[in-house]
Amino acid sequence: MKVVNLKQAILQAWKERWSDYQWAINMKKFFPKGATWDILNLAEALLEQAMIGPSPNPLILSYLKYAISSQMVSYSTVLTAISKFDDFSRDLCIQALLDIMDMFCDRLSCHGKAEECIGLCRALLSALHWLLRCTIASAERLREGTTAGEKQLTMCLQRLHKILSSTKNRALLHIAKLEEASSWTAIEQSLLKLGDTFASLNNSHLQSQAEECGALVRSIPIMLSMHSEQLHKTGFPTVHAVVLLEGTMNLTGEMQPLVEQLMMVKRMQRIPSPLFILEIWKACFVGLIESPEGTEELKWTAFTFLKIPQVLVKLKKYPQGDKDFTEDVNCAFEFLLKLTPLLDRADQRCNCDCINLLLQECSKQGLLSEMNKDSLTEKRIADREQSPWLKSAENANIQPNPGLILRAEPTVTNILKTMDADHSKSPEGLLGVLGHMLSGKSLDLLLAAAAATGKLKSFARKFISLNEFTKHINGENSKAASVRALLFDISFLMLCHVAQTYGSEVILSESSTVGEVPFFETWMQMCMPEEGKILNPDHPCFRPDSTKVESLVALLNNTSETKLVQILKWHEACLSILAAILEILNAWENGVLAFESIQKITDNIKGKVCSLAVCAIAWLVAHVRMLGLDEREKSLQMIRQLVGPLPS
């Protein structure tokens, strides 16, 4: 399609006074889908028609603005078209062109191939040259005494400063300079002419504006070296490493050692407080983004939103000289808000406004004033408006982990208070609390919140106490026996989960503690498989009272799991099951028991009380490791039976 036909279509739209959206619809009907509007030079054709008279045609300009807003035309073609207009004496036309540049020059972007991105850089360089020429022409008119010259000159300087004050725009111009050396020479010549022209003006305000714009242009060729110096001054990888190591390996650790390590690094490297706090937040967001989904993600979320604000509270207590720590925190957040890609990626990963939640938590901890919190929140909201993909409809129903973690923290305190009560008075009520904890990912959220706030050990001790409580029986009916069995089972499984997720040291009593060692601690140390831990299946603890073992074997072989609940002491059953499994395994291997009998026994073991199955599998794992490859078949088959689902 020839350009002349494009012009005819624009003129027809003007004659018939089409609205902007009618024009866009009809244009798409008139022209084939194969050719893009940039290839047809739509932006240039619209500008050419709009600028025919002494003042711009508002209707045709509205078509161009609609084309820009709806991305019918690229920013590069619009900038190129503007830079071809050279009648600087037509004030209204110049003002209209500057207004069009205002629409997008603070958010230049390009979606396409590398050539199109380079095209945007070249177009911006052409637009800069055009602005400099326009500024020089306006200054010359002002020098000649034309009143309109000052207004136009002010507008040109404002647009120059707006474009050049953006680091991103200067980076694009730097790329264009490397691509178009001759065009950059023209820019330098225009700068010299600009300086000469302004030297003869008597307006100091306009002169200072022009000097500032000139300095920004001259900084473009050396911006890479300037940036590397800045990185050298503001990047502190040691702080980053300390925080990442703590968040990954030591969520349950005490806060004070971390605080002292960070302060030592700060003093040794003489890091200014705002940059020090900024580096801590940067490390947290990187850890949050890179963490694997599941438990590790919850750990990093708790570390970032619960532990680090409390670490900052402790850092606040160190001498700050005459500086206000809350102002340093505010300054660090101001720097952090400039790292938009990092924050956008974190928001996308967590499905929420992370900064908003973090600011609320810091304000609650007394690290930020209410005024600073509100100001920072507004800035982040404005930035998020430029990233519509952060509000994806498909994630609207997913509850974000940071919000869940922050709500879990007070729940941990309430559960600890509940667990302090006398268990014998209302075991059914306690069972309801535990059931609520096990729904969805509630337990993992509560454990992560407890770990980040230093309450996980207390949490574990409460469940060990509950597990010990279920050992004592004083004449109970079948309902009470069922409740006791469930309390034992849930507390046992929770403690196993804590030990596997956060390490067995969280469970163990202090070495100075006197008295009987709780059952779960004994079982965990002697029987629970862990990485790097060697278990001895022939240890004396695996050889309990033979009469109890025989009784348990008989029950497993002949009794339903419902009756089992009423007559067993569960801690004794967990120790006896190890020897019982060995007897059952030997009977199976010697042909005394058939596979159907093994299925019945394993179904009884994993029936209502899962802890028996866990203990049985733990012993079988240790036993299998002691066998040769050709001797493992039946033991592995029994493990598969125990971990499989119950028959419906």
UniProtKB/TrEMBL annotation:
Q: Which GO terms describe its biological process?
A: positive regulation of transcription initiation by RNA polymerase II
Main subcellular location: nucleus
Family matches, as InterPro entries? Mediator_Med24
Superkingdom classification of source: Eukaryota
GO MF terms, alphabetically ordered: transcription coregulator activity
Keyword list, A-Z = Activator, Nucleus, Transcription, Transcription regulation
Q: Which Pfam families match?
A: Med24_N (PF11277)
Task: Give the GO cellular component terms, alphabetically.
Answer: mediator complex
The places in or outside the cell where this protein is found are: Nucleus
Q: Which family does it belong to?
A: Belongs to the Mediator complex subunit 24 family.
Query: Could you identify this protein by its name?
Result: Mediator of RNA polymerase II transcription subunit 24
What high-level taxonomic lineage is stated for the organism?
Eukaryota, Metazoa, Chordata, Craniata, Vertebrata
